[in-house]
């Protein structure tokens, strides 16, 4: 399942050169992952309340390919690469039209209430689309 999130670049997202500040791409893809999980049927707040599990980024590989600028309309695309019993790996891109501006592979792990790594909850594993 490919998820698309549309967002606009605001003035606050840019640096003095008028381009999106590099760290903001990480915020954009975080929003994309959150909305992808919501669309997959995963309620992160409910999961935290019922099982104590939360997600954390374990690893990220990122490529900054072209700059986005103030007022650009962007699309964050999120696709499941694969999942194991303990982690989820997603591929994400930030696009302006058909042009890829940023791409990343993100490894997400599940943590318990004390911040220790744990297996993904069974209900979550069942909810994930085939990658």
UniProtKB/TrEMBL annotation:
Family indicated by similarity: Belongs to the 4-hydroxybenzoyl-CoA thioesterase family.
Keyword rRNA processing: no
Record bears the keyword Calcium: no
UniProt entry keywords in alphabetical sequence: Hydrolase
Pfam family, one: 4HBT_2
Protein name (database record): Tol-pal system-associated acyl-CoA thioesterase
SUPFAM superfamilies documented for this protein: Thioesterase/thiol ester dehydrase-isomerase
Organism: Paracoccus haeundaensis
InterPro entries: 4-hydroxybenzoyl-CoA_TE, HotDog_dom_sf, Tol-Pal_acyl-CoA_thioesterase, YbgC/YbaW
Gene: ybgC
GO molecular function: fatty acyl-CoA hydrolase activity
PANTHER family listed in its UniProt record: 4-HYDROXYBENZOYL-COA THIOESTERASE FAMILY MEMBER, ACYL-COA THIOESTER HYDROLASE YBGC
């Amino acid at each position: 399942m490919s998820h698309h999130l549309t967002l606009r670049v605001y003035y606050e997202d840019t640096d003095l050169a008028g381009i999106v500040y590099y760290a903001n791409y990480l915020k954009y893809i975080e929003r994309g992952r959150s909305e992808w999980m919501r669309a997959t049927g995963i309620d992160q707040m409910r999961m935290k309340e019922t099982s104590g599990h939360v997600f954390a980024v374990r690893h990220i590989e990122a490529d900054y390919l072209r700059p986005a600028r103030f007022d650009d309309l962007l699309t964050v695309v999120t696709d499941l690469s694969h999942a194991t019993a303990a982690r989820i790996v997603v591929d994400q891109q930030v696009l302006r039209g058909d042009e890829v501006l940023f791409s990343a592979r993100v490894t997400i792990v599940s943590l318990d209430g004390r911040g220790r790594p744990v297996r993904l909850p069974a209900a979550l594993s069942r909810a994930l689309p085939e990658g």
